[in-house]
Write a structure and sequence with these properties.
The chain has 9 helices and 10 strands. By secondary structure, the protein is of the alpha/beta class. The chain has a domain of 65 residues. Strand 1 and strand 2 form a beta hairpin. The longest helix is centred in the C-terminal third of the chain and has 18 residues. It binds adenosine-5'-diphosphate and magnesium ion. It holds the Pfam family ABC_tran. One of its GO terms (molecular function) is ATP binding.
């Protein structure tokens, strides 16, 4: 295992409530890591803490073995990460402009920007939308733009929080299929938060189940899903009634 990020004795507290309590956790280079758990388990909080959007209350986060001071992650490190959320949060402007934004902020030349935007629009099947205003897209189109915008900066880690949960089923499965191929080709390390067994089963290689702010089980995704432990079985078995585990 080759950890990019390690968590040691992480807690996150708000209003006298412990929302996360994680003695040990890591994100390995090249993996597609799933973080699954019931609503309110602490998944989004964990994603925000490991991507330095929120500060932990105590404990250490290490990047390549170096402790990152709380609340003081260097900009060069933050720029290695991209984040995609359920709401695509696109700006009023063309699809092209929205996808280009990360490169524009990095002062990349226009010619390179054009080439890269074309490339990522092609991969996500949205070249025909280049000149459309991003505020008038369907949910599936908007999420494709959101993911292209996140990937164009070639992040070392892509963090995703329920990116497909608002999409209708046919739109979701087509996008998941495209997205999986794109992540595999780019060899991007991905961390994918979801409460949905079907998404987790299809996309991820390793899985951590979080319940009440604690990681109750982790391991290769098929193994965790097939063999829940006493802390994860009530949550997983509810899902398994409805989704047989075919990969
Ligand atoms: N800043 C905060 N202040 C108070 N409570 C919070 C805060 N952030 C999260 N919580 C609470 O922590 C719990 C976990 O939230 P969250 O990480 O969003 O769960 P999940 O993404 O698994 O649904 C919830 O009960 C939520 O209300
Ligand atoms: Mg959440």
């Amino acid at each position: 295992m080759n950890p990019l990020i390690q968590l040691k004795n992480i807690t996150f507290k708000a209003q006298n409530k412990t929302i996360l309590d994680i003695p040990e956790f890591q994100i390995n280079a090249g993996e597609f890591l799933g973080i699954m758990g019931p609503n309110g388990a602490g998944k989004s909080t964990l994603l925000k803490v490991v991507s330095f959007l929120e500060q932990q209350t105590s404990g250490e986060i290490l990047y390549l073995g170096q402790v990152i001071p709380i609340g003081n992650a260097p900009i060069e490190l933050r720029r290695k990460f991209s984040i995609a959320l359920q709401q695509s949060l696109l700006l009023d402007g063309t699809v092209f402009h929205n996808i280009a934004i990360g490169l524009t902020l990095r002062k990349i030349s226009k010619a390179v920007i054009n080439e890269k935007v074309e490339y990522w629009m092609e991969l996500f099947g949205i070249s025909h939308l280049a000149k459309k205003n991003a505020l008038y897209l369907s949910g599936g189109e908007a999420q494709r733009v959101n993911l292209a915008r996140a990937m164009i900066v070639e992040p070392e880690i892509l963090f995703l929080d329920e990116p497909f949960s608002a999409l209708d089923f046919p739109t979701k499965i087509k996008l998941m299929e495209d997205f999986k191929g794109i992540i595999e080709t780019a060899q991007t390390t991905a961390v994918y938060v979801s409460h949905d067994l079907m998404e987790i089963n299809y996309l991820t290689n390793r899985l951590a189940i979080i319940v009440n702010g604690e990681v109750k089980q982790s391991g290769p995704t098929p193994r965790v899903l097939e063999h829940p432990n006493s802390s994860t079985s009530s949550f997983l078995n509810e899902w398994k009634k409805f989704y047989p585990l075919a990969r």
